[in-house]
Amino acid sequence: MTFELTDSIKNDIMFAMEDQNSQSAFNAAENKVVSFIKNFDNPAEDLKIDENKVYSLPNWTSDDGFNLMEAFSETCRSPLARNELKRCLQSRRGVFRNFKNILKAYPDVEKRWFAFKTKRMLSKINEWYNDLRETWGLELLEEDSIDEMEDLVRNDFEFKEYDSGRDKECVDRAVEIMAEEYKDSFEGEIGISIAAMWRYQSAFSKSENKYGFVCYSHLKEFLGCILFSSCPSSAKKTVVVTDFFVFQNYRGLGIGKELFQKCLEKAKNSGIQWVLFSNTIIPESMEHLLSQFSFEKLGSGYIVDLLKD
């Protein structure tokens, strides 16, 4: 007996796959997932499977769940969350509960986890369903295109054009927070010097002469920004990045990339040709981002020609 794999049925199957205390199957005659509590003392009482109308669900064990968490931790781009998750997985004690608790402290990483898990589990369900369709003599279906991972940044964060009247105070506070972070990252006078350089760079231009984009959470928390300014002030086609940062707990989620993309598009549409990035201290992760946007090395800084084909 055939059945259509609807979104509602997919969700029910995912829930059943993760429930390790119950045995479940899909009853095509009733068009629903049926479950009962496992009898570990008497396996003979397990649910009877009739492959003509009651189908076994995709196999999903606690090992599969652990491997999924491990795979996500390897791809997690938020350094703080990634380190905590890996420590949790190494401990092996209360791993599933602790993994969930860690993610609660990083709401945006948690959303990526759910998207990651959903994508992997739906892929397994689609594979299972295609195996059934093959036995039914039906054409195989293409795997669903799932774009939640790519859409999370745009859906869960608010990106606005910089307004000095509205955003200056937030940016000024953030510059000080970032300066202290640099100061703490290096020892002694080196840290103090790098923090001072960070402040000087932001002070290159007055706030009202800057433009760019800021990012806020859905709770209206300021999370980061990218700001440009003409260089020199009389320049018509050349700007320099004066401020670019994302707060530590929100790094690795794609916010910086989205800020960069929006600002470069605005600069190009405004007739800007050259964008300079002149930070003396540039992390490796930043170099990778700059290369994605076609920046080229220029001395100790970077430059991109927005009008270059």
Automatic annotation (TrEMBL):
All residue ranges annotated as the N-acetyltransferase domain in the record: 157-309
Gene3D superfamilies attached to this UniProt entry: 3.40.630.30
Tree of life domain: Bacteria
SUPFAM superfamilies associated with the record: Acyl-CoA N-acyltransferases (Nat)
Pfam families: Acetyltransf_1, UPF0158
GO molecular function list: acyltransferase activity, transferring groups other than amino-acyl groups
Protein name (record): GCN5-related N-acetyltransferase
Gene source species: Treponema succinifaciens (strain ATCC 33096 / DSM 2489 / 6091)
